[in-house]
Amino acid sequence: MATNSQHHWISVDEYMELDQISPIRYEYWEGQLVAMSGGNSDHALIATNIIAALRQHIKAPCRLYNSDLKVQIAADKFLLPDVHVTCDPADLVGKIQAVRSPRLIIEVLSPTTERADRGRKFFAYQRLASMQEYVLINYRLRLVEVFRREQRKWSYETYQSGEMVELASLNLTLPVDVIYEETSIPIYDQLDTLEEEERGS
Question: Residue 163: which residues within 8 A CB-CB, separation 6 or more?
C-alpha cells in the first residue's frame, strides 16, 4: 500500500536505478516517489487468498503478478497494484521491468490508499486500452467492488459475503468468502455491530 510522497523531483531513470537498490518499494507519479508501507495481516491474507485462487486458473497466454512488479500507465507513472493480470505477449517476454497492458487490476483498500485507488489511479487505469476490469477489496467489511469496461462505458457491481464475484476478464467467478478467508473482517450485516463496538470503546 502506498503512503507518504517524497516531494523532490527525480527522473524515470533515477527511479529505476533506485528501485534496484532500495529496500523500500516506491511508486512513481509524475516525478514524485510514493513509498509503499507494509500492510496488516488482513491485507496480506486477502492478497494471498486472491493470488492463490487465481493461480489455479491463469493459463498462457496470460500471467498473474503481485505488487513486486510495476505497472506502467504512462511515461511518468509506475504503480504497484496488489494483484494484476496481463495477457499481452509484449508483457510476457524476458525479464520485464513493468507490465504495460494489464487486463485486470485488483487493489486491497486501506485507509491510506483508498482515496488514490478510487481517484487518480482509477482514472489513469481507464486510459489503458487493455484494461477490462478494476477490482477494489474493502478493508472494513466483506465487500468487493468491480468496475468493468463495457464498450465505451464502465459498469459497476458489488458483491457481498455468500456471493460469487464475476471476473469477466478471466471468464471466472470467485467466492467473496474465499477472498476474505481467515481474516477478521466482518460480513456486511455485522457492520452496524462493529461500529457500535467502536463507538463504545
Answer: 175, 176
